[in-house]
Amino acid sequence: MNPAAFYPTSTDVLRFLPELILTIGGVVLLVLEALTGDHKDKSSLGYVSIGVVLAAMFAVPVALANPGVSFNGMIISDGFAAFFRMVTLLVGLFTLLCSTSYLSREKSNSGEFYLLVLFSLAGQGIMASSNELIMVFLGLEIASISSYVLAGFLREDKRGTEAALKYFLLGSFATAFFLYGISWIYGVTGATNLSAIRDALAKGTEAPSMVVAAAALMLVGLAFKVSAAPFQVWAPDVYQGAPAPISGFLSAGPKAAAFAIFIRIFQTSFDSLSSRYEPILWVLALATMFVGNFSALWQSNVKRMLGYSSIAHAGYVLVAVTTHSNVGTAGAMFYLASYALMNYGAFAAITHIAGRGEKHVSIDDLKGLASKQPVLAALLTVCLLSLTGVPLTVGFFGKFYIFKAAIDHHLYWLSALGLLNSAVAAYYYLRVISAMYMYEPKTTEHPEPVPAGIQLTMWCSAAGILTLGVFPGLVLDYANRFATFVK
Questions:
Q1: Distance of CA 142 to the CA centre of its chain
Q2: Which of 34, 94, 336, 363 to pair with 462, CA 20 to 30 A apart?
Q3: Distance between CA 243 and CA 403 in Å, rounded?
Q4: pLDDT tens for residues 344-402?
Q5: Distance between CA atoms of 307 and 243, rounded to whole angstroms?
Q6: 262, 321 in Cβ contact below 8 A?
Q7: Cα(270)–Cα(197) distance, rounded to whole angstroms?
């Protein structure tokens, strides 16, 4: 083998530029944290991290302008990777905008928080652009370890400590399943490159039972990461116990990256097994929707309700993945981008409403919000209506394209039951809207002004929800164009 093949070229660097910027930015923040000392306000580090994320977002088109594989085939720069890089970076940007004021309020503003967000985003970008199972594992671990620490970042909060511990223990088990699946598929095919595995399986000489077992092990690991039933038990506890900005981050960013590699693996390497795993995904999607929606009905804690809601939305995306089609892949891409906007917008509102120590996170605490803070209530309503799937919001078109892909693939029962779940979900979203508009405030205290970062996040989310609700082609055309990579 030519040793020169292992030395990166300038093109390799350009294809990996977003993750490189995030990694260097994280290291710079680590140095700045040490230089600023313990007695100084660390909000400035938050602004630096926002600049790093913006630079990484500008680097995504640069990487897309240089398509192809890099680093001996381990990384691939294509439209699919660019899409999910941008989605995860957008979620990261929203997180940083909301976190600066939140950490100051909680008196926990330190540079470690910001660099952990950057490292998690770098791991998510690696996952989305991986063309090699070992790289997938590395990206998964980088993103996960950072997320475990972020979930318990407020060390004096017992809820966060419990959330981080549960997330770490269950996540470690899931990662072990995924890694064991990698080792099995390597033993069967002698490859960890996604395209090489597909070519090896296409020959039909490998033991079918071993291949199916390897795929099943990897499916378990990825199902945990996307919070699919019955591997969803961690999600409500983690979303409830983690700091509110991180709850929104975990519900959208890592989930999008996990779905990206889920689609890439199962529609590339295991393309020949689609007839075998389709019934499993069918059941997985249905169970995830039912568990998420019906569990959310009984919740009084808004963060926990949104946690179960997040599970249900993973079920909707799995409906599109079950179709094993380019239309389904495009629908999943569009829905994940839509979900990032509407779900983080909701968590941004909760970040402010919860107050110091997050003592006000029940639905009762939102009563009368429309009379006290009408703009905040209106923006939160837009996000909740979109999560419900009301027409003229991006959530409506997201569900429309997912169920259209399922119907085109003759998954009629799955589509019907999925639509039924959407109707069920309307109840618990409307409960929150009803509390804001139909009840008097619980207290007469003057509310705290909404911080600029949270305002900007919510306005951007609402603008994206309404714009894509009227012009979905702005994102869907791109998704349709680059959903063909799997074939």
A1: 15
A2: 363
A3: 34
A4: 999 999 999 888 888 888 888 888 888 889 999 999 999 999 999 899 999 999 999 99
A5: 13
A6: yes
A7: 8
Q: What is the reported pTM? A: 0.93
Q: CA 93, CA 20: separation in Å to the nearest integer?
A: 17
Is the distance from CB of 316 to CB of 289 less than 8 angstroms?
A: yes
Contact between 146 and 117 (Cβ < 8 Å): yes
Buried b (16+ CB within 10 A) or exposed e, 385-413: bbbbbeeebbbbbbbbbbbbbbeebebee
CA dihedral 238, 242, 248, 254 (to 10 degrees): -60
Spatial distance between the Cα atoms of 170 and 42, rounded to a whole number of angstroms: 32
Task: State the pLDDT at residue 5.
Answer: 55
Q: Which two tokens stand for residue 143?
A: 């993103």
Give yes or no for a cis peptide into 230 (omega within 30° of 0): yes
